[in-house]
């Protein structure tokens, strides 16, 4: 077969693989409708590990605030959640969703205008802001104070773009995940690190030699993402989040992971 005549065959095969990859589940309750899932009988979630307390491994299990949130959605759909660990770049660019790797992405991911072009977000479910991590005894409390120093950033994140815009004259050192960034700061490989306040406060609890010295008031909100146009699933997620706030499960899960009740404006 010539390369030219093979093309339509490949195209047809790709389309039918795509169709075969989607199965439908009937959902009951508010905001339902026919929701198609990439793997039958499961709600497949893309995330990027580790990002505690939102998602991280405890033994063999993946646990966290986001995991519990998506479990509520799975149970409303009468299926189990299955979590796929994949680089954040493919999550935030919409690529994983658009190639049917997963039904939802839940990765402590901030709702941004750029991302909204490539995927659709649920209603916000968590508030965050960028923050600065350093080791105790270091003087860094501002980005200006880090001039000529090394600042750890996590690839593809809002923290990285904030630093690119605001950390003038600071050497940005890019890390692929949160764990590598935290270790770089702790071991002095970089002078400080920027990331979301929730994960940094969680880290300093167990790492007394490190400290959070600033918050930058970026006013971020996390959303659960679905592929563009998957309104049935997005509406279902919104309905589940609304119910969770009304029936106390949101507060219970928040307390489980953060130790306190949420401020009313933080949810
Ligand atoms: N909230 C940040 C963002 O959306 C970081 C998310 C993450 O690293 N998982 O870019």
Automatic annotation (TrEMBL):
The record's listing under SUPFAM superfamilies reads:
Periplasmic binding protein-like II (SSF53850)
- Tell me where in this chain the Solute-binding protein family 3/N-terminal domain is found: 42-261
**Does this entry carry the keyword Acyltransferase?**
no
Mind telling me which GO cellular component terms the entry cites?
Answer: cell envelope
* Localization (cell): Cell envelope
Q: Which InterPro entries match?
A: SBP_3_CS, Solute-binding_3/MltF_N
What family is this protein classified in?
Belongs to the bacterial solute-binding protein 3 family.
Task: Please give the name of this protein.
Answer: ABC-type transporter, periplasmic subunit family 3
């Amino acid at each position: 077969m010539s390369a030219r005549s093979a093309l339509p065959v490949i195209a047809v095969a790709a389309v039918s693989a795509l169709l075969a990859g989607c199965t439908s589940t009937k959902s009951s309750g508010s905001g339902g409708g026919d929701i198609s899932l990439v793997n039958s009988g499961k709600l497949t979630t893309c995330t990027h590990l580790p990002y505690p307390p939102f998602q991280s491994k405890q033994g063999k299990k993946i646990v966290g605030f986001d995991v519990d949130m998506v479990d509520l959605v799975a149970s409303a759909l009468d299926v189990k959640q299955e979590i796929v660990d994949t680089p954040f770049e493919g999550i935030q660019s919409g690529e994983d969703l658009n190639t049917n790797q997963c039904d939802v992405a839940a990765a402590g991911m901030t709702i941004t205008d750029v991302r909204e072009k490539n995927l659709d977000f649920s209603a916000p479910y968590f508030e965050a802001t960028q923050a600065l991590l350093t080791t105790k005894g270091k003087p860094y409390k501002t980005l200006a104070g880090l001039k000529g120093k090394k600042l750890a950033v996590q690839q593809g994140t809002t923290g990285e773009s904030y630093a690119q815009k605001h950390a003038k004259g600071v050497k940005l050192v890019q890390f692929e995940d949160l764990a590598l960034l935290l270790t770089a700061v702790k071991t002095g490989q970089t002078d400080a690190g920027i990331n979301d306040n929730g994960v940094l406060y969680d880290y300093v609890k167990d790492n007394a030699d490190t400290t959070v010295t600033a918050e930058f008031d970026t006013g971020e909100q996390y959303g659960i993402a679905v592929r563009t146009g998957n309104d049935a699933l997005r509406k279902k997620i919104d309905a589940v989040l609304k119910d969770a706030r009304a029936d106390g499960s949101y507060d219970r899960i928040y307390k489980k992971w953060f130790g306190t009740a949420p401020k009313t404006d933080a949810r």
